[in-house]
Design goal:
It is built from 3 helices and 3 strands. The model has no long low-confidence stretch (mean pLDDT 93). The radius of gyration is 12 Å and the shape is globular. A 3-stranded antiparallel beta sheet has the order 1-2-3, with no helix packed on it. The protein has helices at residues 20-24, 34-42, 44-49, and strands at residues 5-6, 10-14, 56-60. By secondary structure, the chain is an alpha+beta fold.
Length: 63
């Protein structure tokens, strides 16, 4: 599979429906991260699909 960007340690792709299970389980311990979590879980996919914004999911490569 070709990724948008790939390095030795991570890869990233545009957000997609296949990412939503992981995004629903995404948490940030610091309360200041609430806005990021809310955006990813509620708005990011719609913004991606309507070309209002680009959201990239960055993942560590399995070693």
């Amino acid at each position: 599979m070709k990724h948008y960007l790939e390095t030795k340690y991570f890869y990233c792709d545009h957000i997609s429906l296949s990412d939503m299970v992981d995004i629903e389980n995404f948490v940030i311990d610091d309360p200041r991260g609430f806005g990021l979590v809310r955006y990813l879980q509620k708005d990011a996919l719609n913004d991606e699909n309507t070309n209002n914004a680009r959201t990239y999911i960055v993942r560590d490569k399995k070693r």
